[in-house]
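Entry 14. Two folds queued back to back today. First construct below, sequence then structure tokens.
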Amino acid sequence: MNTERLKKAPNISIVGSTSPLGKELRELIEGPDFPVGKLTLLETEEYAGLLQEFAGEIRITQIISPESFVDTDIAFFVCSPEIINAYASSGAAFPDLTIDLTQTGREGALFLGGVSDASNLKTAGYYVNPHSATITLGRVLARIQNAFQIEAVSATVMEPASEHGSAGIDELQEQTVALLNFQPVEHRTFPGQLAFNLLTEARASRSVESLLRSQLASLLGKGIPPLGVAAVQVPVFHSHALAVFLQLKEAPSPEQLRTALQVGGNSVIVHSDEGLTPSPVTVVGSDAVHVARVASDSARPGSFFLWLVADNLRVAASNALQIAESLMFTPAQSR
């Protein structure tokens, strides 16, 4: 890693650039606000030689190997768990500055923009990008925590097909087409029919639930009680939706809670109850968390229901880019 180049226009490698999350990250890096030196797109041998466009130029996808990171300043891993686990088990070293978006549970410094303290970042290290549902819930709870004392919180997390990558998106599309044409439904990625259905497969749900609890506890500390969470696979292509229940020690009005949620910038957008409520479809392309239906329970003072929606790919990619930017513009510290 070249620390001088890191501050100006770092060389970047993206492992898993053909995945839905990889494409989202590539589009954000291509924007005018992020300086890039050389971009290297890495995949497994299956995708080697694939042509991809970046900033008006054609790039050739290369095979991931330790040698492919020789001139890399920042490496983003947005690949499948199988690819990063295979790379790690081979004994190969990760680049000095690695940002992991794979949610495989590898150890590293967890960072959530707007919540974590950027001054704790070091020039080199292994950084873990939180799960997109953690980002969504973490941003909202952090703002509420700054204004009120949270006594209990629970959430139903509705997971989109894109959390399973291209395979999940393709399977939901295939199942939908098959059902509309009165054809048998096949499944490989999901445990059964997802199209026009809901799935609560225990093993996958428990894995996501455990990850969210662990990451939120790490990010928000002991001021937040343990999260009660249930994950459900829903038949939408993109965006998380969360139904959240809060119990606060105080009994603020819905208007006071709305005001607290709006303090801290536009990474959280609070919608009025009038008009169309934000949905998984309407928030695609937005890197903000959208909050609606801030409703209190008159029978239980301090109890609230919130509806949260966020584009899972966009918020994950934008937070990873925030980690990179924070490292680029933070004075160098020792490892």
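Second construct, same run, same settings:
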Amino acid sequence: MTRGSCSWRAVVAVLLLSAIWPLLAWGHVESGQAGGFVSGLSHPVSGLDHVIAMVAVGLWGAQLGVPALWILPVAFPMMMAFGGMLGLIGIPVPGVEVGIAVSAVVLGALVLGQVRLPLIAAVCVVAVFAIFHGHAHGTELEAGQNAMLYSLGFVIATGLLHAVGITTGLIHRWDSGRLALRGAGALVMLGGLYFLWGAVA
């Protein structure tokens, strides 16, 4: 058995364990707590509008490079948690669905155009959009579930989606990769326009 095949088996084993970990945890805590965490973990991936925007944050961070590469994927979940808290305690944020759709349009356009904003401006862009995403998650907590574990779940899921974007975005080191990234940005932007049409129609 080669070292390469061992490495791949280890990666697959870790991924499988990660996938079933919430189910294993379910057997060791009260059902409402486990349900809250699992619901939070699955909520960000239950809507394509959330998914494409969160992946786009990672793509843009990869384009911008260090330190934006890690600052943007940290800033987004932090502000999303703040938005989630607003939703959980019932403080309204106007135009949430429109804000989510616009986030995909803008982030996709930034990736498509390979736009290099100053770091503070880039952080502000993702932070503002994160509030809309977080508020949507916060208002959709099901009755009887643990709000803290639910919030922890959707923050972790968001971080994983950012990681997908960052990992994919590393192809920008090559000319063909940069072209593919811009194409991905265009797809995100078009998806955002589709969702924006649905939100305002």
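Quick look at the second one. The two ends are 58 Å apart (CA to CA). The chain has one domain: 31-200.
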